[in-house]
């Protein structure tokens, strides 16, 4: 039986990107601890931390989170525009491939408003950032798919079904997709999108020391 | 502008496995139609069909579904047990590798009850099938991760964090994972699990002909 079991959580997309290998590293370093991986949206994670159903979470945080939650800043994420080469060629026949260099300096979202898009629901902070920009620029996107699965959005972009948005943490997945396809996905910073998406380690400061939590921080 | 837009839906896991390439094929064959891809659980898909928010869905169906839904049988899925070679070796040190051949004839779930598992929530039909078996065999599994993301379960199995279950439709993903790792995932039929998981094409028989639906059936 493990000495104790640590319950670690993050949002669905982030879990997919980091947790399997993080959990393996933890098990390799601390084989006498158990580890459970939990998925939830930010609000669910805060609530589970508050109720003592979780020991540690990786997520964003807002003023709506319960006061007992302690945050340690982890990293800052940026949101990028992702378009396949073929789709760019179809939508900018007169400017391709020269436009690639131009968009690399900052893609103006208004120029892409004729494309179909995949996006996430507006409850994610990174989508609120985007929606502020769309509102300022008076742009409405034609969304052919809405879900929280950013890796799936990239797959659909590679099939030329849509353009999409990617947070920094999904770029390794994009580079992997690019290894196995001739239709490369291109990543552009978005012009005038200055807001970023901070990710924190969240714990409950009112709960006593949880065995294993400090060990996890080392991973 | 597209002639008309067809709204196609399936469950999250199935979407990930089949929809990006299905949607691309549809667009290649019928470029003058638009296609939107929607994700939902079975109950949500039935409701959206009933309300005319969807044209076609790929999903299971039960007696609880609204009467207006018409089903066409598509395929029958089986649920398999998935364990990595290293994990099998750790848990069956005296019987590995001979036990592999034995388990290929049908793995007795009781022999695996000491392993940690990933599984899905019991609201999925394929999990209800499993739960019937666990109940009959009086086995309780130690679940380190619960989610509807079967491809993620396979990733965690490859990291030796848990054993898991896979429906037939996720086996191509498993074979892909096996291409890039020395720690192969092994797939075993489950002894005494005879129930299967049927998947249907669902439409609303009360709604008139939807342009594009017949075209999609051809894909």
From TrEMBL, chains A, B:
InterPro entries xrefs: HTH-type_LysR_regulators, LysR_subst-bd
Gene3D superfamilies named among the record's database cross-references: Periplasmic binding protein-like II (3.40.190.10)
Domain LysR substrate-binding positions: 3-206
Superkingdom of source: Bacteria
Protein's GO biological process: regulation of DNA-templated transcription
GO terms for cellular component: cytosol
Pfam family name, one: LysR_substrate
PANTHER family referenced in this protein's UniProt entry, alphabetically: HTH-TYPE TRANSCRIPTIONAL REGULATOR YBHD
Protein name, per record: LysR substrate-binding domain-containing protein
Organism the protein comes from: Lachnospira eligens
Phylogenetic classification of the source organism: Bacteria, Bacillati, Bacillota, Clostridia, Lachnospirales
């Amino acid at each position: 039986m493990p000495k104790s079991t640590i319950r670690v959580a993050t949002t669905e997309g982030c879990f997919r990107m980091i947790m399997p290998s993080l959990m393996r590293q933890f098990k390799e370093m601390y084989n006498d601890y158990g580890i459970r991986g939990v998925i939830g949206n930010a609000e669910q994670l805060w609530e589970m931390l508050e109720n003592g159903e979780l020991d540690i979470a990786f997520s964003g945080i807002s003023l709506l989170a319960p006061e007992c939650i302690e945050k340690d800043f982890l990293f800052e994420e940026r949101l990028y525009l992702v378009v396949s080469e073929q789709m760019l060629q179809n939508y900018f026949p007169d400017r391709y491939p020269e436009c690639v260099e131009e968009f690399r300096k900052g893609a103006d979202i208004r120029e892409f408003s004729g494309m179909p898009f995949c996006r996430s629901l507006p409850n994610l902070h990174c989508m609120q950032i985007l929606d502020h920009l769309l509102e300022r620029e008076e742009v409405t996107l034609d969304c052919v798919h809405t879900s929280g699965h950013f890796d799936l959005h990239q797959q659909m972009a590679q099939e030329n079904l849509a353009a999409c948005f990617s947070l920094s943490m999904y770029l390794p997945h994009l580079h992997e997709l690019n290894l196995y396809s001739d239709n490369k996905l291109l990543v552009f910073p978005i012009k005038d999108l200055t807001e970023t998406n901070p990710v924190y380690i969240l714990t409950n400061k009112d709960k006593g020391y949880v065995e294993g939590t400090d060990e996890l921080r080392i991973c």
